[in-house]
Write a structure and sequence with these properties.
This protein is an alpha/beta fold. The protein has 2 domains: about 10-145 and about 390-420, NAD(P)-binding Rossmann-like Domain (Rossmann fold, 3-Layer(aba) Sandwich); about 150-185 and about 195-295 and about 340-385 and about 435-440. It is built from 17 helices and 16 strands. Strands 3-2-1-4-5-6-15 form a 7-stranded parallel sheet, sandwiched between helices. It has a 7-stranded mixed sheet with strand order 9-10-11-7-13-14-16. It has a two-stranded parallel sheet with strand order 8-12. The protein binds NADP nicotinamide-adenine-dinucleotide phosphate (NAP). NADP nicotinamide-adenine-dinucleotide phosphate binds near residues 92 and 189. NADP nicotinamide-adenine-dinucleotide phosphate (NAP) binds near residues 16, 91, 93, 94 and 97.
């Protein structure tokens, strides 16, 4: 079979996030990297041209092909799949626009990565396309952005610190967003979040309709619910539970692992790769997982709760949704803007994600009601929505391009199970996202 002309195509390149992904991909367009060629796709040629100019600045734009494709025209999406082995999808909200792209990739056997943070979309794609993707050999991996790779790799990193007989019972992630300026995100993420809350019942219905997946065996009792607002003095944060995609993605990874304790075999792994995968996954110990959003001040937490309540109350009615989506700046108390953050704003922001693991120092202590050991690790990096997301998506893509034989044949899978045992963590570290052990106390 003749190789398609492009290593990958970035679909939705003109979007706020898409343009950062293009800029990140350009850094790796060089003969010494596996990325030899790529194309940008979108529905507006002028916008694509502008995007390439912005992404290449201060250099002149390289001769990258610009392809016209519209989600509303399935033929145009199928055409993209015949021109590449890998689509990076940045078109959201995914509940509106994602399925035709997944369907075309699954039909043609083209690999697919996206930056979705919408659990309903991901679980629906898994329910409807997993078997067909396995058959066609299309690797479909959602959540290859800040949602949910830091959570997945951060969980795995903490879990692997529990060596010997020690084992975690729960790993709680505390996310803190920092900036010298006001933290602001683009409307696209707000819209996806509002629609997620509006359709929360659909997600419950979908989950109830699916067969129960095996749960991992976790030592000790289920963790206590804990207070609504927690003051986590040791890391200097007030924190509140965040109903993000991360928990559901990590849970899916742990279910896949419960079914396949040695991870998923690659298409054509070498003996060394098989050994490395088995060794890696045997060192990952399951635990209960949750995510909290943190703030250095109690006022910051009250602000987060206020925005959460406004979205929770208003997103359920059409008038409320209209208000939220028409006045995002007002109802998000300044966090989401139609035009997105300024470049300075993006460059001055960063994140820290603390993973606080509680567990048992030995199998003898597992019968105890209370864990007797704590391990704290941290993932840290630049601004989450556009810098970290672009870095992660591009590094996942480079792994697909360079190590396809070592990755599963196909299926709709989580980033943790596909990339967990690869060198993704090292690649992220080389690109400004760090993983550190902070403390171990027994
Ligand atoms: N995982 C994460 O952490 C993370 C981070 C950032 C964003 N996201 C998600 O990424 C998505 C995009 O966010 P954003 O802020 O970049 O939004 P955005 O600026 O509105 O970008 C949307 C993109 O989709 C394109 N698009 C819309 N309808 C289309 C159609 N019918 N055919 C082809 N392309 C179409 C737009 O093209 P036009 O330019 O032609 O309108 C644009 O390129 C959201 O779902 C957001 O939640 C996730």
């Amino acid at each position: 079979m003749e190789e398609p002309p492009y290593d990958l195509i970035i679909l939705g390149a003109t979007g706020f996030t898409g343009k950062y992904v293009v800029r990140e991909a350009l850094k790796f367009l060089n003969s010494s990297f596996p990325l030899k060629s790529f194309a940008l796709a979108g529905r507006n040629l002028t916008k694509l041209t502008e995007t390439l100019k912005w992404a290449a600045h201060p250099h002149s734009p390289p001769p990258i092909p610009l392809l016209i494709a519209d989600i509303a025209d399935p033929q145009s999406i199928r055409r993209l799949c015949t021109q590449t082995n890998l689509i990076l999808n940045c078109v959201g909200p995914f509940r509106y626009y994602g399925e035709p792209v997944v369907a075309a990739c699954v039909e043609t056997g083209c690999d697919y990565l996206d930056i979705c943070g919408e659990p309903e979309f991901m679980e629906k794609m898994e329910a409807n396309y997993h078997e067909r993707a396995v058959q066609s050999g299309a690797l479909v991996v959602s959540a290859c952005g800040f949602d949910s790779v830091p959570a997945e790799l951060g969980f795995i990193f903490n879990s692997r610190q529990w060596v010997g007989q020690s084992a975690p019972n729960r790993i709680e992630a505390y996310m803190s967003l920092e900036s010298k300026r006001r933290v602001v995100w683009n409307f696209g993420t707000f819209e996806s979040a509002v629609l997620g809350v509006a359709n929360a019942d659909q997600l419950l219905k979908l989950r109830r309709s699916r067969p129960r997946r095996p749960r991992p065996k976790i030592p000790g009792p289920p963790p206590p619910k804990g207070p609504t607002i927690e003051h986590k003095k040791d890391i200097g944060l007030w924190a509140v539970r965040l109903p993000s995609a991360d928990s559901s993605v990590v849970r899916r990874t742990l279910s896949t692992l419960a079914e396949n304790p040695q991870g998923l075999p690659g298409v054509n792994e070498s003996a060394d790769e098989i050994e490395q995968r088995k060794t890696f996954w045997s060192s990952v110990k399951p635990a209960h997982f949750g995510v909290k959003l943190g703030s250095k001040s109690l006022i910051g937490i009250l602000r987060i709760i206020t925005v959460g309540m406004l979205i929770g109350l208003l997103a359920r009615t059409s008038l409320g949704r209209w208000l939220l989506l028409t006045f995002p700046l007002v109802f998000s108390l300044g966090w989401f803007r139609r035009k997105g953050p300024s470049e300075d704003g993006v460059n001055s922001a960063s994140f820290k994600m603390w993973f606080v693991g509680h567990g048992f120092s030995s199998s003898n202590s597992e019968g105890n009601a209370e864990p007797d050991m704590e391990i704290v690790t941290r993932v840290m990096g630049p601004e989450i929505g556009y810098l970290t997301t672009a870095i992660i998506l591009v590094q996942c893509a480079l792994i697909v391009l360079s190590k396809r034989e070592a990755l599963p044949q196909g299926g709709t899978l989580t980033p943790g199970i596909v990339f967990g045992s690869t060198d993704l963590q090292q690649r992220l570290q080389q690109n400004g996202i760090s993983f550190d052990v902070i403390s171990k106390n027994a």
